Amino acid sequence: MTTVIRRRRPLVVLLAVFGLLLSACSTGPGQANAAAIVNGKTIGVDRVQELVDKARQAEPAVQQLADQRKLDLLSRAVLRQLVLHELIAAHTAKESVAINEATVTELAGQLTGSFQPLPTDGSASPEQIVDQAVNRAFEPTEIARDYLALAEIGRKRAPGLSVTFDFTLVAPGGPDDKPGSLREKAIAKANQLAVSLDEAGKIIEADMAGGLQAARGETITPALAPDIAGSVLFGAPLNSVIAFQPNPENAGWVVAVIRKRETDAPPAPDAKPADARLATTLGPRMLQDTAQQIGIEISPRYGVWDLAGMEIAPSEGETKGVVIPIKNTNP
């Protein structure tokens, strides 16, 4: 009998294999005609529909979504942008974020000047259509200002952000593979880990001993792994368990226990300032704390707020993951 020895690879490598290049669900709002309630402020259904109608007029390719009965993709994307706007406002009310208005004007002009209608022959993907349609639905200065605010939030947070965690991977064909979706298995594993920190450690060690891709005490920073800076790994709070699918095109799920999360860790002596790509990837994720503090309610007609994806998912069963507080721990 041949014995196969599995060499455990660092999480960054494994996540890259799974394609992690990322560009608290809630019940529906109680107020009539509310698409969402963020920080006590209502975002109306009429406002969402107004922007969807504007997007349809500005981007002819949106008709493709209508023909395919996928206009819900556009509605959710519009509502997400409105929610992000409120999250940025709540964040900047507590933490100053400097935005140069001249840069806002310049970027808004670039957005306006660079617009080219997408092909209407079906060659454009739904994702391409939604992205461009959302940009056309909002005022250019509004899109530009929010974009620059997110980039600045990411730039400020990147140097001091550090996360230490245990993890295990739920992948197809594992030694204990049983019937059922990987999502179900990953969330079940996350709930097991969330019983207590001690129990989480025992389960992770058992996975390591059993030859699974698992490890304890991994530490990561955005600078060390810029391609995964937008993942829930960097936004989840201390003493929580996360389960998320890095990329829907790949089957594997990551389940991790957040053991330590620092936002003001000393940067490495040779650390460089966050570049534009890292800053814009990290920025939206840094609003996760704000989202949990102020609360987000989404009308069921649009779906649920996906804290792991920082977006709106059609249903709880279609979120990009879960964030579960570990029981019997201090906040």
UniProtKB/TrEMBL annotation:
UniProt keyword Signal, yes or no: yes
UniProt entry tagged with the keyword DNA-binding: no
PROSITE patterns listed in its UniProt record: PROKAR_LIPOPROTEIN
Signal sequence span is 1-34
Q: Name one Pfam family in it.
A: SurA_N_2
Annotated keywords: Signal
Q: Which domain of life is it from?
A: Bacteria
Q: What is this protein called?
A: SurA N-terminal domain-containing protein
> Which organism's genome codes for this protein?
Actinokineospora alba
